[in-house]
Specification:
Elements: H1 5-21, E1 26-27, H2 31-37, E2 44-50, H3 54-67, E3 76-81, H4 86-93, E4 105-110, E5 113-118, H5 128-142
Parallel strand pairs: 1-3, 2-3
Antiparallel strand pairs: 2-4, 4-5
Length: 144
């Protein structure tokens, strides 16, 4: 039995996608999806750049999940998947200037403007609870 690399990768990353979508986070899979959502999102929008990287994404996704249990959360929740939905990720990263590409990473936008950004180096070697604390602090500051 032969399986294409693309099919294999889709099967491998689906659980990583599900970690976020089951929280109510909407996947933006194309540049058109990104353009339809980010510039018109009124209020606050969380954008998680998902990744297969175990050292960072293994804490990023649980940290996001913990943060979304907070009383104050963003109005909109989105995710793009680095390395999988490459064009959508590249389009989303245009909203994260001046930060260089980083995956995983987490952006908080307010009325389409970046107000808080967590880069990969701020995710690596930190616990999910630390990442959640960083996010909830940003939610308290920008999502009221």
């Amino acid at each position: 039995m032969s399986m294409s690399f693309e099919r294999y990768m889709l099967d491998m990353v689906q659980p990583m996608r599900d970690d976020l979508t089951r929280l109510g986070i909407e996947e933006l899979r194309t540049p058109e999806d990104v353009e339809a959502k980010l510039p018109t999102a009124k209020g606050t929008a969380l954008v998680v750049v998902n990744s297969v990287c175990g050292c960072a994404a293994g804490q990023c996704r649980p940290g996001v999940a913990q943060a979304l249990e907070h009383d104050i959360t963003p109005d909109h929740l989105y995710t793009v998947f680095a390395g999988q939905d490459k064009e959508a990720t590249a389009k989303a990263r245009e909203y994260f200037a001046p930060y260089p590409p980083s995956s995983p990473s987490i952006a908080l936008l307010k009325d389409g403007e970046l107000v808080h950004f967590i880069e990969r180096h701020q995710i690596e070697n930190r616990s999910a609870a630390d990442i959640a604390a960083d996010l909830t602090s940003a939610f308290d500051r920008f999502c009221r």
